[in-house]
Amino acid sequence: MTLNIVFCGSPTIACPALDMLANNDKVTIQCVISQPDKIRSRGKQSSPTPVKALAQALKLPTETPHSKEEFTHLIHHLKPDLIIVIAYGMIIPADIVNTYSLVNCHGSILPKYRGASPIQAALLHGDEKTGITLMEISEEMDSGNIIDILEIDIKKEDNFGTLFEKLSSLSSTILESFIKDYEKEEKINSSPQNHHQATYCKKIKKEDLLLSPTDSPEQNFNKIRAFAPKPGAYIVLNNKRIKILAATLENGILKPSLVQPEGKKTMNYDDYLKGYQQEIILC
Fold first, then answer.
1. What whole-number distance in Å separates Cα of residue 139 and Cα of residue 156?
2. Which long-range CB contacts under 8 A does 166-170 form with residues at least 24 apart?
3. At a CB cut-off of 8 Å and minimum separation 6, what does 221 contact?
4. What SS3 class is residue 152?
5. For residue 205, which of 116, 144, 131 has the smallest C-alpha distance?
6. What is the pLDDT of residues 64-119, one digit of tens each?
7. Is 11 helix (H, G, I), strand (E, B) or coil?
8. What DSSP designation does 18 have?
C-alpha cells in the first residue's frame, strides 16, 4: 500500500521535497497543486511556478486552482490520504483543514517567526540558529501542532540565498523521515506549540530594503544579508539607487564588498570605486 498524497507548493524552496516524494516508492502523488501561471511583461507570455515546472518535468498531474472553491472541489474529488504544503501561497480552506490530514514545512523554529518572511526575519535579528518545522496545519496561521524540527546554524557568511538553499534541502530531509514514520504508525504524532512564545514576521515591502544611517552597523549588516542576493538592500546616492549585496563588518566598521549601481551589473566594491570614484558610507 502506498500513501496517496496531494502536494501543494509554488516557489523553488518546495522543489527538493517534491523531487524526493516523486522518487519515493512509499507514496503516490495524485496531484501537484500550484499557483496559476504568471504573465510576464515581455512578450506577455505566461510562465509556470517552479513547482509546476518541476511537476511537469516529472510527468506528474498538475492543477492551478484560481479560487478556494476550486481548490476545495479538487481536494474532495481526489480524497488524498495526506496533503503536504510548502509555501503554496493560499490559505487552505477550513473545510479541507477539518476533513483531511495536512502537514506543512515552515522555515523557522516555531513558534518563532510565524508568517511570510521567516528566513529574512532570522537574519534581520542576527539569530545564530534557524530550521525547518514540520507541523500539522490548523485554521490559524502557522499555529498547528509540531511534528518535528530540524535545526541548522546560521553562519556570518550566510545570506537569504544560502539559507534558502539549506532550508530547501532540509524540508526534503524532514519530510522523508516523516513519511517513513507515518507509514509505520499510520497516524501523526505531534505536540502543541507554546502560543505565548509566538512571534510574527511580515511580508517584505520595498521600504524595508532601504539601509538607514540611523541604524547600527550590525542592523545594516543583517539587513544586507537578509535581502541578498534578491531583492537587495540599498542606499540612494546622487538620486541613484545602489544595492549593497554583500559587506564586511569588522570592529564596528561596515564596508560594502559587492554592489550593484542602478542600471548596472553587480560588481566588486573596488571596481565600483575605480569607475565611480565615490566612496559609499553605510553608517
1. 36
2. 167/13, 167/107, 167/119, 167/130, 167/131, 167/132, 168/12, 168/13, 168/14, 168/15, 168/16, 168/17, 169/16, 170/131, 170/132
3. 247, 249, 254
4. strand
5. 116
6. 999 999 999 999 999 999 999 999 999 999 999 999 999 999 999 999 999 999 99
7. coil
8. H
Taking phi over 0 as left and psi of -120 to 50 as alpha, with beta for the rest, 238 belongs to: left
Please say whether the beta carbons of 113 and 200 come within 8 A.
yes
Residue type for 252, please? Answer: G
User: Which pLDDT value is given to residue 45?
Assistant: 79
- Within 13 Å, how many C-alpha atoms sit on residue 218's CB side? 5
Structural element, H or E, at residue 55: helix 50-57
Nearest to 66 by CA among 33, 41, 94: 33
Ordered strands of the 129-136 beta sheet: 62-63, 27-33, 3-9, 82-86, 102-106, 129-136, 146-153
Q: What is the 3-state secondary structure (H, E, C) of 160-196?
A: HHHHHHHHHHHHHHHHHHHHHHHHHHCCCCCECCCHH
**Entry field: residues in the chain:** 283
Tens-place pLDDT, residues 162-215 = 999 999 999 999 999 999 988 777 678 899 999 999 999 999 999 999 999 899
Amino acid identity for residue 49 in this structure: T
SS (H, E, C) 81-135: CEEEEECCCCCCCHHHHCCCCEEEEECCCCCCCEECCHHHHHHHCCCCEEEEEEE
Q: What pLDDT was estimated at residue 43? A: 61
